[in-house]
Write a structure and sequence with these properties.
By secondary structure, this protein is α/β, with parallel strands linked by helices. The chain is built from 18 helices and 7 strands. A 5-stranded parallel sheet has the order 4-5-3-6-7, sandwiched between helices. It has a two-stranded antiparallel ribbon with strand order 1-2. The radius of gyration is 22 Å and the shape is globular.
Length: 386
Amino acid sequence: MEDQLSYPYAIEKWHFTLCPKQGVETDWDALYAVMPWFDDMEATPQSPIFHEEGNVLIHTKMVVDEILKILDRKRLHDTARSILFLSALMHDMAKPETTREEGGKIICPGHARVGARKARAFMYRESIGKVPYSCREQIVKLVKWHGLPLWSWDNPFPEKNVLRAACHTRMDWLEILAKADVLGRICADQKKLLDRLDYYAEFAKEFKVYGENYQFENPLTRFTFFQKPDSNLFYRPFDDTVCNVTMLCGLPGAGKDTWIKELGNGLPVVSLDNIRRKLKIAPKDNQGLVIQTAKEEARQYLRAKQDFIWNATNLTKQLRQGLVDLFTTYKAWVRIVYLEAPYPVLLDRNRNREHPVPPKVLERFINKLEIPELDEAHEVDYFVDH
């Protein structure tokens, strides 16, 4: 049998206890007890054009039934089965908060992106037991990109979206989830949607990312391909970088300061926390002056072609993108270092910090966290404490 756990990175062996074995029915009562969004799903309508079956919960149950049929036929490893089962359960978990009526139509813009964050926060808090980081992130990425096989053709550069997703999750697993999503609904264009999935699979195979990772020639080629809209796979950029910037990313208490002490090589540090204390600005106050001061410190190092570390939480892709744009304007090589500590450890560390983050603020940070992806910088490294 194919090794289901080797791509895109080592996935720990794990089994979700409520994932039914072949021939066993789904225990929906048990799932209701641990999935708090089911009631909201039941109260959330869907567009009758795309979902004649009814509300979001009806659709989700149909998707789960369909994905189990597919998994039974394919006989995937228990870990893959658990990952895909939970992906089906969570793929539309953000529809209740993103659904609205506009122009007489029911729409849910951004539900996959919001759902990815919600799925991560739910599993990070160990709400269904401890899900290994590698398995959790596979589920998150499948939720985030579950619509990719259907809408990637609407983009002028479909290969960028497919290869971007392929950096983090298996395209064959994504096809399984997308197929279950199509079969688990009632709509007039179901055949057309299934045809799109076939085109997607052939496209992924053509680029050799259907069940395997695309091998970029080097990190600079990968970074340039994803960052520049007009760049293609055959472009080989010249490395004209003149210094290195390490951007730390992680929740308060994840271990950023410890990483600097142990692995920072004595480099100068631009620390937003230190600037706040120096300027006597509380975290809840307006941060404009703090950010402005930090960026000016960074510019001084960049002008001098001096390596340095940018130390802040940097929790969202949008925030990180603005900083990467600043650093690369000065021809810096950017490395993002993501750090993570288990939820109970994070809470304990925060309680014992000299300057603890208010618990409500910390929980809000967890809800907004977007873990850095490989297309965001020249290098992205992950230091995860299990």
